[in-house]
Structure formats: structure tokens, C-alpha cells
Design goal:
With 327 residues, this protein is of the alpha/beta class. Strands 3-2-4-5-7-6-12 form a seven-stranded mixed beta sheet, sandwiched between helices. It has a five-stranded mixed beta sheet with strand order 9-11-10-13-14, with helices on both faces. This is Alpha-ketoacid dehydrogenase subunit beta.
Length: 327
């Protein structure tokens, strides 16, 4: 058991799979000699060699395309894209090939690849470096979309993603890479994909969040507890396929729900969860579902980021509004 940051947990999971499965290999821009832009692959090329940890040209479409070919032939490639804002050249490969390979070949071929990318804001990066495109990715049939919220979940979920026989997009919250440490056992135990985690139990309102926003949700729950408002906090973790049953059970218990996403508001993934609640939990609700989100603008640069990202104050205010609406 070691105390690891999230980026160290990612490194540990990659090393574990490289060591125990000869089909696993890594490829991406600057991941070998330099260990990646955030050093998630630091030391892995030196340990496993340049045929297993491959530095590629700056060509995201080519990287993703090569990975699909490798996966179709029985390898398990793990691709790193330097920032989620650089994903778009690879989208053609993900949408038209990776996600369709099983269906297109009637199950004769699968695509066991993982595409990793830093995701979201909070580190004052320039344009294209702080985006949250999870809703766009979750809309693609055949792709799994996973976003960890802690070192232990990053380790276990990444192991599960690499072992999955179908393509997984694994978005790593940039702000959490070195925000805190957590005890992580390097035991090779994967966490279940397609499952939400209840991070805090409560009775008065349900807070639903994922990735970096889970921590604002937990902080808001702590603040609200001082006023006697007991919040249950759910970490979605796997957005696609969504474990709606865990969310529905929680809202049936609390009668209130606030969904927190850092992505822009319109057509964000929080709207999908709100639709689920409208369709299947309407008669349990004591107040309208609320969303706390980013704004419908390009995420501002540097010092203005904090005005864009959902804050503890905004989340707590939304919960209080749901409490007052049902009083």
C-alpha cells in the first residue's frame, strides 16, 4: 500500500498491465523519453523498452488509427492524447472505426484499446487544454467513457479499461493529477466499469458529479451539513454506459437532486441524467432537478477559470433552493 497522487496511480496501473500482459503497449506524443506532458508514463519506456512504450509523431488521427489496427490484431494499445482539446483529429477514427468494429465484423473482431486524455480545467492552461468533451464522446454508440475522481479509482478503473474487450475513452481530471494523495494497493484489482460509487450517504438531497467536480460536491456537502442538510454524493465514474439505477435509488430516498458538471451547460451530460430522472423518478421528486454547470462559452484563460468552473458556493446555493422549493 502506497500513498499516490492520481497521476502516480495511472502510472502504476499502466506498469502493472505492461508487466503482466504482453499484449499491452503504450503509444503517444512524448510518452517515452519524456514520460508524457504530465509525466503519467514517466520511467515506463526505460523499464519496458521502446517497442512497448512508443513515442509517436504529432498526429492524433494517425495515433488512434494505428491503435485500432493493433487492437484488431490482438494487441491492447493504450493511447495518450496530450489534452482532451486535441482529441478532435482522432474523432473520425473513434466514431467511424473503433466504436463500430465489433458490429461491422459481427463480432469477429473487437477493439480492446484505451484512449487516455487529461480533461477539464483548474490548472490555468491556455485554450484547447481545459475542455470537457465527455458528453460528445458518450453520445457515440460503442464507446465507453470513464472519468476517475481519485487515485484509487484511477488505478482500478484504468485496469478495468485496459482489460475490456471494447474501446474505452479514459478522461483524467487534470486538476486532480497532483491535488492530493491516497493509499492505493498495487494489487491488480480492477474496479467495476459501468457502476456509480456512493461517496457519501445522506437523506435530504442527492448530489451527482464526476471527475474533478466530485470534490466540489463533497465540499458543498460538508458545508451544508453544518446547517443540518444531509447530502448523498454520487460519483458517476463511468458515464457510458450509465449506472442509472444507483442514481434513481438515491433520488427515490432523498427526493431532490443537484447535478454538477464543469462542461458547458447546453447538451452537457448532466442533461442526460436530468432526463433519466424526469422519465423514471418524477413521482419521487419533491423539487425540480437542478444543474450547476460551466457556461456556454469557451472556457476562459488563466485567472478567469475560477469564474467558469462550478464552485462550492454555487452548488450549496442550488441545494438550498431545492430544499426551499419543497419546504
Amino acid at each position: 500500500m502506497a500513498e499516490l497522487t492520481l497521476v502516480e496511480a495511472v502510472n502504476r496501473a499502466l506498469a502493472h498491465e505492461l508487466e503482466h500482459d504482453s499484449a499491452v503497449l503504450l503509444l503517444g506524443e512524448d510518452i517515452g523519453v519524456n514520460g508524457g506532458v504530465f509525466r503519467a508514463t514517466l520511467g515506463l519506456q526505460q523499464r519496458f523498452g521502446c517497442e512497448r512504450v512508443i513515442d509517436t509523431p504529432l498526429a492524433e488521427a494517425a495515433i488512434a488509427g494505428a491503435a485500432i489496427g493493433m487492437a484488431a490484431m490482438g494487441l491492447k494499445p493504450v493511447v495518450e492524447i496530450q489534452f482532451s482539446g486535441f482529441l478532435y483529429p482522432a474523432m473520425d477514427q473513434l466514431i467511424n472505426h473503433a466504436s463500430r468494429l465489433r458490429h461491422r465484423t459481427r463480432g469477429r473482431l473487437t477493439c480492446p484499446m484505451v484512449l487516455r486524455a487529461p480533461n477539464g480545467g483548474g490548472i490555468h492552461a491556455p485554450e484547447h487544454h481545459s475542455e470537457s468533451p465527455e458528453a460528445m464522446l458518450a453520445h457515440v454508440p460503442g464507446l465507453r467513457v470513464v472519468i476517475p475522481s481519485s487515485p484509487s479509482r484511477a488505478y482500478g478503473l484504468l485496469l478495468a479499461a485496459i482489460r475490456d474487450p471494447d474501446p474505452v475513452v479514459f478522461l483524467e481530471p487534470t486538476r486532480l493529477y497532483r491535488l492530493f494523495k491516497q493509499e492505493v494497493a498495487d494489487d491488480g484489482e480492477a474496479l467495476p466499469l459501468d457502476a456509480c460509487f456512493i461517496s457519501r450517504e445522506g437523506r435530504d438531497a442527492t448530489l451527482v458529479a464526476w471527475g474533478g467536480m466530485l470534490h466540489e460536491a463533497l465540499a458543498a456537502a460538508d458545508r451544508l451539513a453544518e446547517d443540518g442538510i444531509d447530502c448523498e454524493v454520487i460519483d458517476v465514474a463511468t458515464l457510458k454506459p450509465l449506472d442509472g439505477e444507483t442514481i434513481l435509488r438515491s433520488v427515490e430516498k432523498t427526493g431532490r437532486c443537484v447535478i454538477v458538471q464543469e462542461a458547458a451547460r447546453t447538451s452537457g451530460f448532466g442533461a442526460e441524467i436530468a432526463a433519466l430522472l424526469a422519465e423514471r423518478a418524477l413521482y419521487f421528486l419533491l423539487a425540480p432537478v437542478k444543474r450547476v454547470t460551466g457556461y456556454d462559452v469557451v472556457i476562459p484563460l488563466a485567472r478567469l477559470e475560477h469564474q467558469y468552473l462550478p464552485s462550492v458556493d454555487r452548488i450549496a446555493a442550488a441545494v438550498r433552493e431545492t430544499m426551499e422549493a419543497s419546504a
